[in-house]
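debug: dumping io for the single-chain case to check the tokenizer round-trip. Nothing else runs in this session.
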Amino acid sequence: MRRFAAVLVYTSINTRKGGVSVRMDAWVLWLIAAGVLLVFEMMTLTFYVLWLCIGAVVAAVVGWIAPDAYILQVLAGCVVAIVLTIFTKPLSRKIRNSSKGYEDTGTELAGKQGVVVEPIEEGQFGIVKIGGDTWSATSVRSLKKDELVRVLKRSSTIIEVERWEDFT
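debug: decoded output
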């Protein structure tokens, strides 16, 4: 609690000769980074950013315990993120394959029909509506609004589509 109060004092705004200075401990910055990474994880749903987030939390803990050991903070965060990345991928694959009824939403979308809501230009994103959901979409061809498309594959939040007539 004493440490938390010290951080509040450090982060408070000091007015000196009309200027403003703010000082934060490193562990606070690590926690802010972890929060930002968590938001990115929630947007991408990939788990890779989550491991970086957990690494930043570990770095924050190390920074809280040893405030001047910046290299140790970075090393601890990197080691945790790398270990989680290496060892959780086979584990998640094993859990995914063993759980009955699990369907990856990416494979679920493949082959479905959608409608172009916002035109898709080559190399740029457009918007496609599939059922009641809208998705950012790319295509190797330009597609106009209201054209029917088929989903080829999904990567994170972006789907790749082709013109429905090309499929049938």
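debug: round-trip ok. Residues 12-16 have pLDDT under 50 and may be disordered.
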